[in-house]
Amino acid sequence: MKFLTRLIIISFLLSGNCWAQVTSSYWSVQKSQHFIVYYQQAESNYISELLDNAEKYYNSIVTELGFTRFDDFWTWEKRCKIYLYPSPKEYQKATGRPSWSGGSANITERRIDTFLYEKDFLQTVLPHEMGHLVFREFIGFYTYLPLWLDEGIACLQEQTSREERIKTVQGLVISGLFIPLERLTTIEANNLMMPNVFYAEAVSVIDFLLKNFGRDKFIEFCRTLRDSKDWKMSLGKVYGFKNFDDMNAQWVAYLLRDVDLKAFADR
Fold first, then answer.
1. C-alpha distance from residue 152 to each of 30, 45, 129, 197 (Å)
2. Which string of b and e fits 217-229 if b means at least 16 CB within 10 Å?
3. What is the pLDDT of residue 113?
4. 3-state DSSP call for residue 180?
5. Measured between alpha carbons, how far is 225 from 229 in angstroms, rounded to an integer?
6. Gap between the Cα atoms of 256 and 174, Å rounded
7. Eight-class DSSP state of 33
């Protein structure tokens, strides 16, 4: 599994990060129900494809996370803005991002920046950043979360790699290389040593919460988190986990529920 810019395209979670001010007269605009795309030069079919994909991902994300009943997300003046710069150089100059960045998001501004024809944007960067935006808008911009929870939500939206990541975590459990939840929680962006393992496990935890307990429980968790701002308390209150060890044991049992251990050992 590759670790490249599409995995985590630096997501700005706070409004204090600097974006260049955009003069609207330089930009053409196309709109859909939940998005406004600003661009300077692009083929109309590409903009249509971008908007179609964005709407598809929006519907998928709010459905999976259980947010469909909150219909005021991203409509009218609340629509998400996507700025499509003509080139990587112009994107980097405007946003201050490094050369490897394919896109960036500002949650408090409900905004995503990228550049024209970025190779991973439509399939990976866009759903990843939208996952951050939708989740954070619901639970709070400044609520502290462990990295695995924030990134698990975002990476889960990358449909093309979801099943591969979950299978990776099953293999980690069986081979004894699995990172237990308590240790996973101590990992932050500045001490991320095994990104492939970390992101796979982060996706797997969220998949476990959603599929093992259902969307209604997850939306209850998000509401409790939004109101209390305490992620540990919210997990315990909603899901009944006694502690990290209890949650970890249930997560591992979920991962191994359909695995033929004998077949794996015979490989």
1. 31, 32, 12, 12
2. bbbbbbebbeeee
3. 96
4. coil
5. 5
6. 9
7. S
Indicate whether 7 pLDDT > 60: no
Q: If you count them, how many residues does the chain have?
A: 267
Q: How confident is the model at residue 258 (pLDDT cuts 50, 70, 90)?
A: confident
3-class state of residue 258 by DSSP:
coil
In whole angstroms, give the CA distance from residue 114 to residue 67. Answer: 26
Quick one: tokens of 44?
A: 């109309």
Closest CA to 206 of 240, 233, 166: 166
Question: In this structure, what token pair is assigned to residue 56?
Answer: 């598809």
Choose between 201 and 260: higher pLDDT.
Answer: 201
Handedness of CA 69, 15, 162, 212 (dihedral sign): negative
Q: How far is CA 15 from the centre of its chain?
A: 18
What's the pLDDT band for 16 if we cut at 50, 70, 90? very low
Contact 28, 40 (CB under 8 A): yes
C-alpha dihedral sign at 13, 16, 17, 22: positive
CB 51 within 8 A of CB 197: no
Kindly state the helix (H) or strand (E) to which residue 198 belongs, with its residue range.
helix 195-213
Contact at 8 Å (CB) between 61 and 80? Answer: no
